[in-house]
Design goal:
Elements lengths: L10 H10 L4 H8 L3 H8 L2 H26 L2
């Protein structure tokens, strides 16, 4: 994550990353220090959903790059 450990990121950013990776709101809440209900509330906000989409795209781009760039033979 660009040299920054996940623990150093704000809870909302960490939650967006974990959601993009397919984790459930109930798992994410305690991991980032909030309730699952808070994560569900964040998820209902358009700007947060857009953050999750951006993270998913970056993850997918990274996966494709590693496959195309010689990660698989």
């Amino acid at each position: 994550m660009d040299g920054v450990g996940r623990e150093e990121l704000p809870p909302r950013v960490r939650a967006a990353v974990l959601l993009a990776m397919g984790r459930s709101t109930e798992e994410i809440g305690p991991e980032v220090g909030v309730s699952g209900r808070t994560v569900r509330r964040w998820r209902s906000r358009p700007e947060f959903r857009a953050d999750v989409v951006r993270v998913r795209r970056r993850l997918l781009d990274g996966a494709v790059s590693s496959l195309v760039g010689g990660g698989v033979r």
